[in-house]
Amino acid sequence: MPDVDRTDFLLIFGANPVVSNGSVMSAPGMARRLKDLRSRGGRLVVVDPRRTRTAGLAGTYLPIRPGTDVLLLLAVVGTIFDEELAAAGRLAGFTDGIEQVCRAVGPFPAERAAPWTGIEPAAIRGLARQFAAAPSAAC
């Protein structure tokens, strides 16, 4: 469950928590919470085929083709590895299999995902860089 009140970067895929009050997150006042996130300098990115009310509050809205979320995620993770942006930090001791993940996402660069997702390679790489650079991020 993302800590909306303390995160610096919130990436939302195919959800409209402004209308559902967070549904899975079960957090009331989601519109206010998302506005607060942005007012304190946080980033809100919404990836959804439809421009929902939540997307309307986002600093970045990425209209994706339905059913292609996984390709976008593969390209984002691939960019993070390609550009050496991954930093396990305090989780390094609990992390296993990073090399396998890196190999698995290798065949799905931003240029390959773009035609399927409808999101430009530069936007995919920018999303990966911003997510990796955030002091705290949630998805």
List keywords for this structure.
alpha/beta, 139 residues, 2 domains, four-stranded parallel β-sheet, 7 helices, single chain
In short:
This protein has seven helices and four strands.
Detailed description of the structure:
- The chain has 139 residues and is α/β, with parallel strands linked by helices.
- The chain has two domains: 9-62, no CATH class; 69-138, no CATH class.
- 45% of the residues lie in helices and 11% in strands.
- The protein is built from seven helices and four strands; from the N terminus they run βααβαβααααβ.
- The protein has helices at residues 17-20, 30-39, 53-57, 69-82, 98-105, 110-117, 121-133; strands spanning 9-13, 43-47, 60-62, 137-138.
- Strands 3-2-1-4 form a four-stranded parallel sheet.
- β2 (43-47), α3 (53-57) and β3 form a beta-alpha-beta unit.
- α4 packs antiparallel against α6, α4 packs across α7 (121-133) and α6 crosses α7 (121-133).
- The longest helix is centred in the middle third of the chain and has 14 residues, at 69-82.
- The N and C termini lie close together (9 Å).
- The mean pLDDT is 91.
